[in-house]
Design brief:
It contains 10 helices and 15 strands. The protein is α/β, with parallel strands linked by helices. It folds into 2 domains: 150 residues, Quinone Oxidoreductase, Chain A, domain 1; 141 residues, Rossmann fold, CATH 3.40.50. Strand 12, helix 8 and strand 13 form a beta-alpha-beta unit. The mean pLDDT is 96.
């Protein structure tokens, strides 16, 4: 089978397509014929060496959608040909086939394409956990979603709307601004404009936000804290470096900064998150947005694109 392999950490050009043996499932495992692969920013960090203990060579990625090719003993009720999506693989996602633990796969709703299925795992899991587990959102609260036009941002906007939150979303292109409105945001702001944070606070009539979802904490966190309401919560989803804050901005509001990584979830949390998401996909409340499709051989280009400003939906690779 064809797979992307990383033999050394570095820039996107270390992503090389190679022929490798097709894995075979063992007990409790499922082999998936991959139809679409989700590209996530975390994969660029790992490729560049953020975890130097990651064994080389490896195949990147966690999110796929496809059909079951075969399964090992004690792998549950999964049948050959069944449509699935997942969060997490045993052999890597950037490949024509991926080996998964049976607990990692979920049925792909009939309403969704494989491309949409590949956009679920990290983005929707992250957004759901941020809003419901970490922020403990309550009906009627206000939420500011930075970067609401990207994969996680789109998911968060849809999930927040379903939860009855009042949403202010930001984006950095005209197309992104229109997308955020279409996904259910009550207000949208252009984060290219110098006064957008002042405008955000004005939209709350000075009360501040109950929840802020922060995708780039090293840039925004210090500016987020004065935007919080009393008992407000900033949920740090992404950061690319250090940041300086004024703790008094938290103290005067009895506010919290809470961080998260989806990879820290327990098995019980995984079942809860993807069970809840499945209902949303079935009833149409949730629907992934695909911004760009590229062939597997162009993984290098995908890694460049996913880090560019002006995000619009999800980037997927097609084997």
């Amino acid at each position: 089978m064809k797979a992307i392999r990383v033999h050394q950490f570095g820039e996107p050009d270390v992503l090389r397509i190679e022929e490798v043996p097709t894995p075979q499932p063992g007990a409790g495992q499922i082999l998936v014929r991959v139809h679409a692969i989700g590209v996530n920013p975390v994969e660029t960090y790992l490729r560049s060496g953020s975890n130097p203990n990651l064994p080389l060579p490896y195949t990147p990625g966690t999110d796929i959608a496809g059909v079951i090719e075969s399964s090992g003993e004690n792998a549950g009720p999964w049948k050959r040909g069944g449509r699935i999506y997942n969060f997490g693989t045993l052999t890597g996602a950037y490949a024509e086939y991926a080996l998964c633990d049976a607990a990692q796969v979920h049925p792909l709703p009939a309403k969704l394409t494989f491309q949409e299925g590949a956009a679920i795992g990290v983005p929707y899991g992250t957004a759901w956990r941020a809003i419901h587990h970490r922020a403990q959102a309550r009906y009627g609260e206000s939420i500011l979603i930075h970067g609401a036009s990207g994969g996680v941002g789109v998911a968060a906007t849809q999930i927040a709307r379903a939860a009855g939150l009042t949403i202010v979303g930001t984006a950095g292109t005209d197309a992104g601004l229109k997308l955020v409105v279409a996904q259910g945001a009550h207000h949208v702001l252009d984060h290219r404009k110098p006064r957008y944070l002042e405008q955000a606070l004005e939209l709350t009539e000075g009360r501040g936000f109950n929840i802020i979802l922060e995708m780039l904490a090293n840039v925004n966190l210090g500016q987020d804290l004065p935007l919080l309401a009393r008992y407000g919560r900033v949920i740090v989803i992404g950061s690319r470096g250090r940041v300086e804050i004024n703790p008094r901005d938290l103290m005067t509001r009895d506010a919290d900064v809470r961080a998260m990584m989806l990879f820290n979830i327990t098995d019980a949390q995984r079942a809860e998150i993807y069970g809840a998401l499945g209902k949303g996909f079935e009833d149409g409340t949730l629907r992934p947005i695909i911004g760009r499709e590229l062939p597997l051989a162009e993984a290098e280009k995908a890694h460049g694109a996913v880090m560019e400003p002006g995000a619009y939906g999800k980037i997927v690779l097609i084997p």
